[in-house]
Design a protein that fits this description.
By secondary structure, the protein is of the alpha/beta class. The protein has 23 helices and 16 strands. It catalyses: D-mannitol 1-phosphate + NAD(+) = beta-D-fructose 6-phosphate + NADH + H(+).
């Protein structure tokens, strides 16, 4: 069977995948990140605009970390990949596939920094878009070298903007629109703050700081589409159906929403609404709070707990009685802490549950578990604090999910990608920031060597301000409760721990 490339696209006779396209569209977008979500959401949207002759621009994808593996293989496919949307919309089944030619090329900045800088010099460049996970928009002190890429995402943005500033001699018309898609509150504002801090670290000229402030626009955003990525279990079926092999089949749900808050000119630069795409302009706080708490929160809750209990996908979790009850209770705890009307919270939660029950998508828990500690910090820790403040009780399901995350990162050994854990006699690869992986690995090693107890292990992790920006041991009874759950998970397994927690605290649900 042939492999996907531009020849396949041009010669294809499959209505669902063949689209006429201009392979020489100007490179309007510098995209930091090349993962499934950006390809299945933003790049898919850009293609929808291009098909209608609205945007008329392409994407340069920049590898965010030194260990990226996507771009070299994507290059072999002429930067093409297939987005497959499956689900139920308005009561009707949706199952459609489309080749996306939005990416013009990719760059590894650690080996091709000069090419990255050339993109920053382009008159055609208008936007920087990113998704480097919640861990990406964090401050890291690092040196500035004009001839090599910074390691951090904000460092790259700072260096690229400074190079553009110099190249265009500070012309305000050369400013860019910057749309971070990382799921943290005020993502645009926080990225801008860190970029300015890095500029000061590097002693960049005051003129650059003024240009940064006046010529560029950083937007707070919210993105919403469940993208499950490569269909590991049925890729061959898709290949047979479409008539070609694709190493980057990207599966997602039909539902999508892009919320953008900031100056009105973004509507002209990035006219998503003109293409009939679901976009909200202006204040995004309500959408963000509902989505991050009631969709991403339960995702993070179920990822480690579900995986340790034997589930592999979100659908597995939702079909398992005890895991489903655990998630249902999580929705209740999260809803209790949200400052919205009861009906609004219930309606949104029910919509999310239906999306979790989508029978067509396989959303792997290990993928959701990427950067699980940082995700818990941004998605669930605020909920935990609000719940305690409102009820003067501990949200047991949320706390059990935190304990599960700590056990999920219990190492069998370490490799270049981080901690390798073990479930049912088989190893699994975890993905977390270098800081979090080192802290957890070191604390687990001390426990395994009997230098510290479970309580001391939990105390050390929860008290690490570099991870949490606060000492979580100061939350009354949190350390003791997490320690108890960690001990139970180790001694009796995740499933039994979960069952006992539900029977003890929520017998009315069973």
């Amino acid at each position: 069977m042939v492999k996907l490339d531009r020849t396949v696209l041009e010669e294809s006779v499959t209505d669902t995948t063949y689209r006429k396209y201009d392979s020489n569209l100007p490179e309007k977008v510098l995209q930091i990140g090349e993962g499934n979500f950006l390809r299945g959401f933003v790049d898919w949207m850009i293609h929808q605009m291009n098909k209608q002759g609205i945007f008329k621009g392409s994407v340069v994808a920049v590898q965010p970390t030194p260990h990226g593996r996507v771009l070299p293989k994507l290059k072999e496919q002429d930067w093409l990949y297939t987005v497959i949307l499956r689900g139920i919309t308005d009561g009707k089944k949706v199952d459609e596939a489309e080749v996306i030619p939005a990416i013009s090329r990719g760059i590894n900045p650690y080996e091709e920094w000069e090419q990255t800088l050339k993109v920053a010099e382009s008159d055609e460049l208008e936007l920087i878009i990113s998704n480097t996970t919640e861990a990406g928009i964090t401050y890291m002190q690092e040196p500035y070298h004009s001839d090599s890429s910074p390691l951090s995402f904000p460092g790259k943005v700072t260096a690229l903007l400074y190079h553009r500033y110099k190249h265009f001699s500070g012309d305000v018309k050369a400013g860019l629109h910057i749309l971070p898609c990382e799921l943290i509150e005020e993502n645009g504002g926080k990225l801008k703050y860190i970029v300015k801090r890095i500029a000061r670290d590097w002693n960049l000229p005051s003129g650059f700081l003024r240009w940064l402030e006046t010529a560029n626009r950083f937007y707070d955003t919210l993105v919403d589409r469940i993208v499950t990525g490569y269909p590991k279990s049925n890729a061959a079926d898709f290949a047979s159906r479409l008539g070609y092999e694709d190493a980057f089949f990207t599966v997602g749900e039909p539902y999508h929403l892009f919320c953008i808050d900031g100056p009105a000119e973004i509507k002209q630069v990035f006219p998503l609404d003109q293409a009939g795409l679901r976009v909200k302009w202006g204040d995004i706080e309500q959408y963000r709070e509902l989505k991050v708490r009631l969709l991403n929160g339960p995702h993070t809750m179920m990822a480690s707990a579900g995986y340790l209990a034997g589930a592999d996908t979100v659908l597995d979790v939702m079909k398992d009685k005890s895991l489903r009850l655990f998630v249902e209770r999580g929705f209740e705890e999260i809803g209790e802490a949200l400052p919205f009307g009861d009906q609004e919270k219930r309606d949104y939660a029910e919509e999310v549950k239906q999306r979790f029950l989508n029978p067509y998508n396989q959303h792997y828990l290990q993928d959701i578990g990427m950067n699980a500690v940082n995700k818990f910090k941004s998605r669930l820790l605020p909920t935990l604090s609000r719940y305690i403040e409102k009820t003067e009780l501990l949200p047991n399901s949320i706390i059990l999910s935190l304990a599960a995350i700590l056990v999920y990162f219990r190492p069998v050994h370490m490799n270049e990608h981080g901690i390798v854990g073990r479930r049912n006699g088989k190893n699994y690869q975890t993905r977390e920031s270098e800081l979090v992986s080192k802290v957890l690995a070191n604390c687990w090693e001390e426990y395994e060597q009997e230098k510290i107890s479970i309580e001391e292990f939990v105390f050390a992790v929860l008290g690490n301000r570099a991870i949490w920006d606060e000492d979580l041991n100061e939350i009354e009874q949190l350390t003791q409760t997490v320690s108890s759950y960690v001990r139970q998970i180790i001694s009796m397994g995740m499933k039994e721990t979960l069952t006992q927690m539900l029977q003890k605290n929520y017998s009315s649900l069973t």
